[in-house]
Each structure stands twice: as C-alpha cells, then as structure tokens.
Amino acid sequence: MKIGITFDLRSDYAHLDVGPEDRLEEYDSDTTVDAIAQALAELGHTPVRLGGGRAFLQAVLTSPPDLVFNFAEGYGTRSREAHVPSVLEMLGIPFTQCDPLTAALTLDKPLAKRVVASFGIPTARFAVIDDAAHLDAALELAFPVIAKPAFEGSSMGIRRSSRCVDPDALRELVLALHAGYAQPVLVEEFLPGAEFTVGVLGTGPTARCIGAMEIVPKRAPIASFVYSLEAKRDYQNEVSYHAPPRRPAGLVEAVERVALDAYRALGCRDVGRVDVRLDAQDRPCFIEVNPLPGLNPVTGDLVLLAAGCGMDYRELIGAIVTGACHRAGLPIGEKGRAL
C-alpha cells in the first residue's frame, strides 16, 4: 500500500524568528520521519513523504496515496493540528489518527477539560484567564496552582516556575505568558501526586491501553515536581521512566481507566497518549491528551512506554496503520498487517 507521511519539521519554520524560545518545540526532525518511513517499508508498504503546509497540498493533489500516516502539527492557529486532517477528510483520503474536530478540541486544553469533566472524569479545578487584570476566577482556586498557555503542546510555556504558590507569583507568570504566547492562560489547581502517561491504541469501544508509564523526578519531590520543558530536554538527568509503573496493580488500573475514558470522550482514534496525575488523595485526574503523540524512535514518550510494555517501534507503527485501515475499510492481511 502507498502510504503518504505528513509532518512538519523544525527546519521548515526556523526562519520565523518570532515568539518565545520554545516556539518550535512541537515540530519534528528528519530522524522521526526516517524512522516511520523505515517501519512502514519493513511492514511491506511504500512510504511517500508529503510534508506539511503548501508542499503537502501540492503533493496530495498531484498523487493521492492509499492512506496517510499523519503527524503534522500545522502552524499558526489554535486549530493548526486540524489543518491536514481537514484537507484529507475533504478529499476523501483515509488517514491515521484523529479527525479535524478532535485535533482542534484537544489542542485547546480548557475545552478538552470541560468535555472530559462533562463525562464525569476527574480533572483538577481550573480557570481560564484572558487578561491578567481579571485574575479573580483563578484566585478562587486553592494554591498552589500551575499556569500554562491554553493552546500549546509539547510542554511549550511550561517551566519549573509554572507552579505558583501565591497570587503575586501567579500574576507575574500570567503576564509573562500573555506577552510570550498571545493567548489565554489555563490556571489549574496543582496536583501533588505521582504523574503518569498512558498509551492507547484503537478507536471507540475497541480502544485499549498499551500500558502506563510513571514519570519519576530525580531532583525534586513529587509534591512539587513539574514535568516541564527543562525536564523533557534533559530527561536523562531530570527524570526516570518506569514502564510499567512500580505501583500497586489497582492504582495503575485506575490510572489507565481514567486515560481510556478521556480518550474515548474526546473522540481520539488509532493512537494517543493521555497524561494523568494523582491528587492529594491519590485519585487519578486527567491532565491532557495528545492525539498526535511524538514518535521519535529514541525520545518519544509513547515509544518509551510501548517499549517498556513489550511493543517495539515497528509493531507500534503497524498497530496505528492497522487501526486506521479497519476504520476505513481498507484490506488487512492474514497476520493483521494492512495491505
């Protein structure tokens, strides 16, 4: 099968010297594209690189593939992750992972939390601050709180200093985030318990957890630990990854249940990674979901999680493709491999 790969590289946007220092954090490198292409080829497919933006448009109109493996982040708006899925949906070309609605919804952290909460899934109390002059809603929350940009991924705008213990610190941070990211700020009551990320495969009722991975800080107590941009960039020194978690089975099952419920509530498809953290009573709470999880073969959280649970990289990519083929009615081989 001819499978197009859609993606956005940091090098595509490096010339845009505007915005905060982490403005390109969510974009990938050739390493990830190469790894996905190799995995698809090893599975018997013909990978074709479509890229993103206008290059993608030209390529997909000139020579449409049988299926698109999409992990393009888009650029410029809060609905940017919906750009490529919207085009593919309009053209009737099957693609992996979430549809445009879920792509846009999940990037908007406050909207995603509201939807998840409406299903009765626990999540920390929060407020959305459009203007630092209107902090009253956030001040009704219990401190400490954590503040982050409302429409960013890949821990953009999240630093060690994002945890605020008093109103003065929060006001200063909100001002800085408004200035740097030009968007509303999500303020949440800080969850002081252990942090997990959960991998999910499949769609709807057939979705299932691959497993969970606990992110354990090396240099900070759990109660004040922020899985920040600094921690992710220096992960070998800052954190340990335990996949599966070294926790009682009942607790891990509860974490996975919250993740799977949130994944289904938000309409995710084929694959996703859901972040969950425990509150002060060790109850799992939804943080956010990434329906386009990073697939760097070395550093991707989902890749590390899957490996810890016994699933290698090619198997992970194959499972994503097979799930999309089932949804689209494309033929599946005898061993479950998409043809």
Question: Could you describe the 3D structure shown?
Answer:
The protein has three domains: 2-97, Rossmann fold; 125-189, ATP-grasp fold, A domain (Dna Ligase, domain 1, 2-Layer Sandwich); 195-328, D-amino Acid Aminotransferase, Chain A, domain 1, CATH 3.30.470.20. It is built from 13 helices and twelve strands. With 339 residues, the chain is an alpha+beta fold. The chain is globular, with a radius of gyration of 20 Å. The chain is 36% helix and 20% strand. α2 packs across α13 (313-328). The longest helix has 17 residues, at 249-265.
Task: Give structural attributes.
339 residues; Rossmann fold; Dna Ligase, domain 1; D-amino Acid Aminotransferase, Chain A, domain 1; 5-stranded antiparallel sheet; 4-stranded antiparallel sheet; 12 strands; 20% strand
Percent of residues in β-strands: 15-25%
- What do we call the CATH homologous superfamily of the largest domain? ATP-grasp fold, B domain
Number of strands: 12
Task: Extract low-pLDDT stretches.
Answer: none
Summarize the main sheet: 5 strands, antiparallel
What CATH architecture label of the largest domain applies? 2-Layer Sandwich
Strand order of the largest sheet: 10-9-8-11-12
- Average pLDDT rating: 94
Can you summarize this structure?
This protein is α+β, with helices and mostly antiparallel strands and 339 residues long. It contains 13 helices and twelve strands. The mean pLDDT is 94.
Strand and helix layout:
Blueprint: E1 2-6, H1 10-13, H2 30-42, E2 46-51, H3 53-62, E3 67-70, H4 83-91, H5 100-107, H6 109-118, E4 126-129, H7 136-139, E5 145-149, E6 163-164, H8 167-181, E7 185-189, E8 195-201, E9 208-217, H9 229-233, H10 235-238, E10 239-242, H11 249-265, E11 271-278, E12 284-290, H12 301-308, H13 313-328
Parallel strand pairs: 1-2, 1-3
Antiparallel strand pairs: 4-7, 5-6, 5-7, 8-9, 8-11, 9-10, 11-12
